[in-house]
Design a protein that fits this description.
Helix content: 55-70%
CATH class of the largest domain: Mainly Alpha
Number of strands: 0
Distance between the termini: 58 Å
Radius of gyration: 19 Å
Strand content: under 5%
CATH topology of the largest domain: Rna Polymerase Sigma Factor, Chain: A
Largest sheet: none
Order of helices and strands: HHHHHHHHHH
């Protein structure tokens, strides 16, 4: 039987003591999760030119280079740190391929990256599945279209926390780290965003 994956905390402790195998295993544990995040966030205008797996490899290469510094300070949980590297890489790619004329764009600027059609449908499916609609939880194209339309009407702030929790499937702790807010604020912000989404859907039903 294959060996069980090691606990990330244990791997970080070993990696901080110079264990190269632990470093490789630690980063390898998050490869699929990073690919999922990148596939969700990669602007659909780039999907024909850029393979998410190549982006993952670039991110892991940068993570390998800067891992020792992270392990000395551990400024945030490990996956949000990796995700930040991935986000910066996506910003670089969008700036290079789509926004090349905007020379003043800063690395830390947050673009409202467009979800791919597949990701938008997946998010709508998750939200419909989790809804307590008395008519049942059947996911029809009409309902998906309504959810997508309602999501488009939300503010970026509301849409972002829904994407983080339902599509990227970040934990409350990870979401708090990404957004730099408290876990309590994550829960209340998510609740408000879902209430506004439901209100928008109800308004469409009444139209």
């Amino acid at each position: 039987m294959p060996a069980e994956p090691s606990d990330p905390e244990s791997l970080m402790d070993r990696a901080s003591r110079g264990d190269r195998a632990a470093r490789e295993e630690l980063l390898g544990q998050y490869r699929n999760r990073l690919r999922h995040m990148i596939a969700i966030r990669l602007d659909r205008r780039l999907t024909g030119r850029i393979d998410p797996s190549d982006v993952v490899q670039d991110v892991l290469t940068e993570a390998t280079r800067t891992l020792s510094q992270y392990l000395r300070h551990r400024p945030m949980p490990f996956y949000p740190w990796l995700r930040r590297l991935a986000w910066q890489r996506l910003v670089d790619l969008e700036r290079r391929h789509i926004r090349s004329s905007r020379r003043s764009v800063r690395l830390e600027e947050r673009f409202d990256m467009r979800l791919s059609d597949e990701s938008a449908v997946s998010l709508a499916s998750r939200l419909v599945s989790s809804a307590s609609n008395p008519s049942g939880k059947l996911i029809r194209q009409e309902m998906l279209d309504r959810v997508r339309s309602a999501l488009a009407e939300l503010t970026e702030r509301d849409r972002e926390i829904i994407v983080l929790r339902f599509l990227e499937e970040l934990s409350t702790e990870e979401t708090a780290s990404v957004l730099e807010i408290s876990e309590g604020a994550v829960k209340s912000r998510l609740m408000r965003a879902l209430l506004r989404l439901r209100a928008t859907l109800d308004a469409e039903n009444d139209a």
